[in-house]
Amino acid sequence: MLSFAYTLLENYVQRAVSIIGLDPYCRYFHRETYGRQGLVLDLMEEFRPVIADSVVILCCNQRRLKPEEDFEDVEGGVYLNESGKQKFFAAFETRMRDTILNPVSGQTNYARLCIDQARLMARCIRSGVPDYKPFLVK
Predict the structure, then answer these.
(1) Are β-strands 71-74 and 77-80 bridged in parallel, bridged antiparallel, or unpaired?
(2) What is the pLDDT of residue 16?
(3) From CA 100, how far away is CA 94, in angstroms rounded?
(4) Res 103: pLDDT
(5) Which class for 48: exposed (0-12), middle (13-18), buried (19 or more C-beta within 10 A)?
(6) Contact in structure between 100 and 108 (CB atoms under 8 Å)
(7) How far apart, in Å, are the Cα atoms of 95 and each of 43, 72, 76, 109?
(8) Which range, of 58-62, 66-70, 110-114, 120-124, averages the lowest pLDDT?
(9) How far apart are the two ends of the chain, measured CA to CA in Å?
């Protein structure tokens, strides 16, 4: 579930980076790896616990996914089946629409916050002033 959550989050952040017009292959924290979008991975870091990890914990704590219904064994590994993916995706999308208070932009949701943070990163890069403020949950 974590891997699936990170993939979904990566897609949201990649979209935000593209909307703002940044080069997704530029990177600051992740080492250069051919074909990996380093800036997307950099920006994802601040969202992993509050979006991806929290959805996995929510699904486990509320027993939204059931081992016998939503998972399957494939070559020694355990994976979400189609039913599990649909349930997990619905929980993830609900989280992305959750209303939050961003100290910079006011009331927003996590989907919009990805774009807002990409915009802040772009402003920092373009101005040359290292004043990027990551989103922090208090």
Answers:
(1) antiparallel
(2) 96
(3) 13
(4) 81
(5) middle
(6) yes
(7) 18, 25, 31, 9
(8) 120-124
(9) 25
Dihedral sign from CA coordinates of 91, 38, 80, 54: negative
The pTM assigned to this predicted structure is 0.88
Q: What string of DSSP letters covers 99-110?
A: EEEETTTEEEEH
User: CA 67, CA 83: separation in Å to the nearest integer?
Assistant: 11
- Indicate if the alpha-carbon torsion angle 105, 11, 42, 129 is positive or negative: negative
* Bridge partner list, 106: 102
pLDDT value, residue 136:
84
Please count the helices (runs of H) and the strands (runs of E) in the chain.
Answer: 6, 4
Residue 78 pairs with which residues in a beta bridge? 73
CATH number of 2-127: 1.20.120.920
d(CA 27, CA 36) in angstroms, rounded, equals 10
Surface-to-core class of residue 5, CB atoms within 10 Å of its CB (0-12 exposed, 13-18 middle, 19+ buried): buried
Q: In the chain, what are the domain boundaries?
A: 2-127
Is pLDDT at 125 greater than 80 in this prediction?
yes
